[in-house]
Amino acid sequence: MKVEIFSDVVCPWCYIGHTRFARAAERFRAKGGTIEVTMRPFQLDPSAPEKAEPIIPAMERKFGPNARQMIDRVVGVAEADGLEMDYASALSANTLEAHRLIEVATRQGLGKEMAERLFRAYFAEGRDVADREVLAELAAEVGVQDTGEGAEAVREQIDRARALGISGVPLFLFEGKYAVSGAQPEDTFAAAIDEVAERTGQTPIVQLAASLDNRADGCDDGICAV
């Protein structure tokens, strides 16, 4: 099953939703299912300056007195999911370069890992994810060789998101046509995965009795194995 996750590195609900979906995906894999995840870019604020600034004042300018309440709520939800969010040290940043790095990582089979490292760097470590030196350090940690490419692909995918009518993230697109939006509970993601698997003929075979594991070739004990 192919799943595209549209998200932004500085979106707290994307981090939470990504984590919940990953857990649901592991449940599907444990049943014998296959899920191929591709990270897709989305910028909540394309006009954000490249020079970082503390996120709390930036949010207070945008959301006024509701900003603190919003922060407290999302931090509480994140903690319940085992995620650390330190808004006191978080920095507002333009995410275009971070998305480009995820695109490079995706081409090297490390897109999911790169996205997760960026989420953690931004929300838990107060790192500036618009800073090229920081991005180079994070890429090295994940094992990504930054080729400097990917900017055009990122812009194309952002345009595609708009064409698909995506106006908020996270959004999870299954097989190019089934969508789940928002940081849904893990069980909701698990149910969605199962439903898409059923609709597309990808439901894993459930072994009710006996196993072929570690069985020699030939016929024995009611099973013929090759």
From TrEMBL:
<dbReference type="InterPro" id="IPR036249">
    <property type="entry name" value="Thioredoxin-like_sf"/>
</dbReference>
<dbReference type="Pfam" id="PF01323">
    <property type="entry name" value="DSBA"/>
</dbReference>
<protein>
    <submittedName>
        <fullName>Disulfide bond formation protein DsbA</fullName>
    </submittedName>
</protein>
<dbReference type="InterPro" id="IPR001853">
    <property type="entry name" value="DSBA-like_thioredoxin_dom"/>
</dbReference>
<feature type="domain" description="DSBA-like thioredoxin">
    <location>
        <begin position="3"/>
        <end position="193"/>
    </location>
</feature>
<dbReference type="GO" id="GO:0016491">
    <property type="term" value="F:oxidoreductase activity"/>
</dbReference>
